[in-house]
Amino acid sequence: MQSKYTLLASAYCALSVHRTQVSKDILRFSLLETNLYFTVKNREELAAVLKKNYDIRNQDTLMEMLQSLEEDSYIYYPAAQIFFSMYLQYGDSLTDEAVRAKALEHYGSSAVIRQAIERFHEGEVPVLSDDPKSLPLVVRVGNKLREFLSEDSKLGKRYLGFFAKHRALLEATDGLFVLGFDYSRMIEIITSSGDLGYIDEEVLAELLEHVGGHAERVFGSWVTFWASAVAGKLWSVEEQGIKGDTVKPGNEYISTVYGLVTSPAHPLTSFGLWEDSDMEALRTLLQPYVDLQAEAKLDEEARANGERRNDYFRKNGFDPEIEGRALLLATELVFHPLVRSGLNYYLGEDPVVREIIFPLDDGGNLGIFWSRVHKWAHRVGLTFEADEVPFMYAARHIFTNKRIYRIRRRALFFSRLEQIEWREAAFSFEGSGAGLIECKLGGRKFADLTFKPERIGKTKIGELLIMSREEVETALAEDLTALRALFDSLIAKLS
C-alpha cells in the first residue's frame, strides 16, 4: 500500500536519485510504498535493526515503543518548549536565581502551561490517568519545568546550551520543540513493522493515519516539521550521544533532508501533504547545517547518474518514464503477493543468476532487466504499445500488462515471436528432486525456482536428489498452491 505519511520518514529512506528530476511514479514507488523489503535477506536485516534499535519483535513490542515515544509529548516536550520561551525572553540571565523566579511567575502559570500542552495535542489537555490521586497533566508539566530551572539541574544547563546553539531552528518549530523527530521515527517504525508482518495492513493503515494524521494537523507545514525533526536529531546526537552502526549520523540525516527540500522533483510537496509549504524558507533554515559545496557535489552526481540512466533507456528504445510505471506494476502484481504468501523466499538468489527477474533488480546496475527485455524485443522486432509496460522477465519470456511474449529459437541465428494473451495463459508448477520448481506456461518451461533442503524439512542436498517428483510436490504443496494462486490472480487482473 501507499501512504503520503511515509514522507514523514523520508529522511531514513531517501536515495541520491531523489536529488534530481525523476518521475512521480519513481517517487511514489520509493517514498510512498510502505512495503519495500521484498527479499528474505533484506527483511532479516530490517528485523535485526528494529530489534537492536528499539527492541521491537512483534506487534506488542511495537505498540510499547510507540507509546514510549509518544509519552515525551505529554510532559517533557511541553516543559522544554516553555523553557525555550523563557530563554527567548531572558537569555543567559536564566542562570540567575532571581531571574528564574521572575520568569516562573508568568511561564509557570496554569494558563501558559495549558496552552503549551494544547499545542502538542490539537487544542486539548489529555487526561493520563483515571486515578483521582493522579496529578493533573498541567501540574506535572509545571513540576518538570521547575526541575529544568533548578540550580543543580544538569539537563536544564544542557537545554540552555542547546537553545543558544540552535535558536533559529527551534523558533521555526512553532512551539513543538523536537516532536517531529519522534513522529518521523514512529512512521519509520510502523512501516518497517508492517513490512515484517508484525502488523497486518489494516493495523498498518490505522497507525499511519493516527500518527501521520495527527502530525499533519499539528505541524501544518514542512518548515515546522523538518525544523522540529532536525532539532530532535541534533538533540539526540549532541546531547544524548546516541550513535551506532544502525543509527543514521546527524550530518547524513540533515543532508538527506536538505536534498529532499532542494530537489527539482519536489518529492515532499507532490503528494498532498503540506503542498503550499515555503520550501525556500526551509532551505535557508537548513543551510547553516550542511556543507554547501558537498551538497552541490551530491546534486551534480545525482544529475549525472540520472542522465546516464535516461540515456540507457532511450538507447534501448524506452521512454525513461516507463521505469516508474514498471516498478509500481511489479510491486502491485508480484512483489506484495509474493511477500504475503511467503513466496519471497524464492527471490533470495542474486538476480544475475535468478531466472525470474524484475525492474527492481536493475537497481543502480544497468543490464539486468531492461537490457534483456530490449535484447529479445530487438531480436524479433517487437515494438511495445504506447501504454504497454514490461514488469517481469524469464528465459526469453517478457511479461507485460498487455500480454506475454515468448521468443522461441528456430536455429542458431533465427528466433520466432509468440504472443500469448493473458486470458489464454495456462501456468503450471511442478517440483523436482533436484531442488527446483519448474514453472511452465502452456506446458513449456519458462523458469526454474530453486529451493534448499531445509525448505522441505531436509538437512542435506543429497536428500533432495533421491526424492521422487511426487515426494517433492507433497512437501512443497503449500508453495505450489500459492504459486498457482499468484499467477491465477495475474490472469484475472490483466485479462
Task: Provide key terms for this protein.
495 residues, alpha+beta, 2 domains, 4-stranded antiparallel beta sheet, 3-stranded antiparallel beta sheet, 7 strands, elongated
Structure description:
The chain has 495 residues and is of the alpha+beta class. Helices cover 54% and strands 9% of the residues. It has a four-stranded antiparallel β-sheet with strand order 1-2-3-4. α13 runs antiparallel to α14 (250-262) and α17 packs antiparallel against α21 (477-494). It has two domains: 1-15 and 26-291, no CATH class; 316-494, no CATH class.
What is the structure about, briefly put?
By secondary structure, the chain is an alpha+beta fold. Helix content is 54%, strand content 9%.
Tell me the domain tally.
2
The major β-sheet equals:
4 strands, antiparallel
Helical fraction equals 40-55%
Inertia-based shape:
elongated
Poorly predicted runs are none
Q: Proportion of β residues?
A: 5-15%
- Mean pLDDT across residues: 92
What is the number of helical segments per DSSP (H or I, 4+ residues)?
21
Instruction: Please write the string of helix (H) and strand (E) elements.
Output: HHHHHHHHHHHHHHHHHHEEEEEEEHHH
Q: How are the strands ordered across the major sheet?
A: 1-2-3-4
- Global structural class: alpha+beta
According to DSSP, the number of beta strands is 7
CA radius of gyration: 28 Å
Q: Termini, distance in Å?
A: 23 Å
Secondary structure layout plus pairing:
Layout: H1 10-13, H2 24-32, H3 40-54, H4 59-71, H5 76-90, H6 97-107, H7 110-120, H8 137-149, H9 154-165, H10 167-171, H11 179-195, H12 201-219, H13 222-239, H14 250-262, H15 279-286, H16 292-315, H17 322-341, H18 370-380, E1 390-394, E2 397-400, E3 403-411, E4 414-421, E5 427-432, E6 436-441, E7 444-450, H19 461-465, H20 469-475, H21 477-494
Antiparallel strand pairs: 1-2, 2-3, 3-4, 5-6, 6-7
Helix pairs in contact: 2-17, 3-11, 4-11, 5-7, 5-8, 7-8, 11-12, 11-13, 13-14, 13-15, 14-15, 17-21
